[in-house]
Amino acid sequence: MNNSKQKNNSAIIMTLLKGRTLIVLGILVVFFSIATPTFLTTSSLLLIAKHVALYGILGIGMTYVIITGGIDLSVGAIVGLGGMIAGGLINEGLTLKMFGVTVYFSVPAIVIITMICGALIGILNGLVITKFNVAPFIATLGMMYVARGFAMLRSNGATFSNLTGKEGLGNTGFEFFGRNIGGIPVGAIILLIIAVIAAILLKKTSFGWHILAIGGNEKAAKLSGVKVNKVKILVYMFSGICAAIVGIITASQLVAAHPASGESWEMNAIAATVLGGTSMSGGVGTIGGTIIGAFVIGVINDGLVMCGVSEFWQMVIKGLVIVFAVVIDQFQRNLQAKMALQSRNENS
Q1: Burial of 256 (C-beta count, 10 Å sphere; 0-12/13-18/19+)
Q2: Is 176 helix (H, G, I), strand (E, B) or coil?
Q3: What is the number of other CB atoms lying within 10 angstroms of the CB of residue 127?
Q4: Are 80 and 104 a contacting pair, CB within 8 Å?
Q5: Neighbouring residues of 340: CB distance < 8 A, sequence distance ≥ 6
Q6: pLDDT digits (tens, 9 = 90+) for 161-210
Q7: pLDDT tens across 34-61, in order?
């Protein structure tokens, strides 16, 4: 009787743990709605949606990385570099000194070039990690400084402002990514598209199964024929592309690009991912969970700002949220292992 009661209690706790992010989100919405009357206004919700889109896109790339057992600390710097690349191409074009000409690209071409740059940085991260056996934390930490340094060098630390382009140069329309369509931010629409594609890849394709297999047991995955190094490189490449897209959206929203954009956003991405149920140990994670985690981070950030909480306290709270999420994740894993052991004992 006691064993049955204990089993039921464990099942209830497990259900609550699995839905913890939604529960936390609901509590936060209620709290900030009471704490500040402006929280549920249209303008505030639009602002939150814009920020959630940025954290969500970064988080999706981070989800793939963390599922494989890695980490990517360079995404915030890639956001800044991506914005500077796009902003520089709009305002200054590309000067070909050997031909004495300056080439200006259309906005779609600028977007593609920026995404390629993000992909190349991600590939470089993957190569350093897989070919030289450098720990992901160290490799991406170094790349964070490299990307941030190049962002600063692009304009000697200055801002590219008024990124509207010129009709005569054929490079207008960049501000589209910062606009709303039917009251919905374009960034949120892009997030939805990327989320659907990423979710399908993760759950319905062999590539997704390989990502999960590597995180679950890398040696077993390698023995079963999974090309571990190739998958890891592709995962970091995808993370770099997501970061570059966020750089484009951020610069478009501001109609300006600053090399310090995206500073410390890697922590927002990690927090959203872990809060969404992706295990830091690898092998477990969902895109839907990460999106909910991004909502939690967005609500916390904007809610605290509306309440007039200091930026320094915001950093403290965000750090505590990450630690709390990891502790809860570990507790859930231990409880799952305990329930599985009890089930085997009962069956035997």
Answers
A1: middle
A2: helix
A3: 16
A4: no
A5: none
A6: 999 999 999 999 999 999 999 999 999 999 999 999 999 999 999 999 99
A7: 999 899 999 999 999 999 999 999 999 9
